[in-house]
Amino acid sequence: MMDIELDLKTVLVLSNFTSDRITRSFYILLNYCHFYFLDELWFS
């Protein structure tokens, strides 16, 4: 649990140093890939 918590804090700190547009694009891309791979696994 400590590792996950630390990672989340790191992500939050890093996202504070990036512009909102870059952060949004990153999360959109991450979510797209996440759902894409889930679909590939689920329907394969």
Describe this structure in words.
With 44 residues, the chain is an all-alpha fold. It has a domain at 19-44. 91% of the residues lie in helices and 0% in strands. The chain has two helices and no strands. The longest helix has 24 residues, at 20-43. The radius of gyration is 14 Å and the shape is flat. The mean pLDDT is 71.
| Count of DSSP strands | 0
Mean pLDDT metric: 71
Helix content: over 70%
Which structural class fits the helix and strand makeup? mainly alpha
Rg computed from alpha carbons, rounded to a whole number of angstroms? 14 Å
Biggest β-sheet strands, sense, barrel: none
Q: What is the oligomeric state here?
A: single chain
Low-pLDDT runs of 5+ residues are none
Order of helices and strands: HH
Gross morphology? flat
Q: How far from one another are the termini?
A: 32 Å
The percentage of residues in β strands lies in under 5%
Question: Total number of helical segments?
Answer: 2
Ordered list of secondary-structure elements with their pairings:
Layout: H1 2-17, H2 20-43
Provide a compact summary of the structure.
The protein has 44 residues and is an all-alpha fold. It has two helices and no strands.
